[in-house]
Write a structure and sequence with these properties.
The protein is mainly alpha-helical. It has helices at about 15-25, 35-50, 55-85, 95-115, 120-135, 170-175, and strands at about 135-140, 145-150, 155, 165, 180-185. It contains six helices and five strands, in the order αααααββββαβ. The longest helix has about 30 residues, at about 55-85. The chain is flat and about 55 Å long.
């Protein structure tokens, strides 16, 4: 059985539950509206934007929490089925994007484990060094003076909201200090 909402249907907690339940009832990936996650996002955004009193705030937070649990369950179920059945039929584009990232992670993990098991320590050192100095895109949350990169180059100075590329290891330190946030290009 496939399920597809029409454009007139609105996402609410019940329709989210129905979609997640139908997905869990079958071993096949169910057909859902291509805008499903956008509609869910708009539904949650609307709930968050509404103002409530104390008791209603707890209800709103619970509603958001339940919705998040159902979304996570739905995504996990659909991706697990895709991996098990070796198909992307009925997966939405955003789910395929997540699946691609997962497959890349699995591939990279296998490469490293294989290198460890076969004594390819120079490869492991090379990957580690490349990881430290690989340039990543970041957004500055605070002003920052010039920094010395792990690649021994100078970067900066930066103003709050600047977008820049800096070495990954420097970025990790500044993320931990909440000075920057990482931007993941598509």
């Amino acid at each position: 059985m496939s399920f597809s909402m029409t454009e007139n249907d609105k996402i609410n907690l019940n329709s989210l539950y129905v979609t997640a339940s139908r997905e869990m009832e079958t071993e096949l990936i169910q057909e859902i509206n291509s805008n499903f996650y956008i509609d869910v996002s708009l539904f949650l955004d609307k709930i968050k934007a509404e103002e409530y009193d104390n008791v209603e705030i707890k209800i709103k937070d619970t509603l958001i929490g339940i919705s998040l649990d159902m979304i996570l369950l739905l995504i996990k179920s659909r991706l697990d089925k895709s991996l098990k059945l070796h198909t992307t039929k009925n997966l939405l584009d955003i789910e395929q994007w997540m699946l691609d990232a997962y497959r890349k992670f699995e591939f990279d993990k296998d490469v490293i484990i294989n290198a460890i098991l076969h004594g390819r320590y120079k490869f492991i050192q090379s990957v580690s060094e490349e990881f430290k100095t690989k340039l990543v895109v970041v957004r500055f949350l605070h002003d920052m003076d010039i920094i010395m990169g792990f690649d021994l180059s100078n970067y900066g100075p930066f103003k709050c909201e600047d977008i820049a590329t800096i070495p990954n290891k420097n970025a990790q330190v500044l993320i931990d200090k909440k000075i920057i946030e990482r931007i993941y290009p598509s």
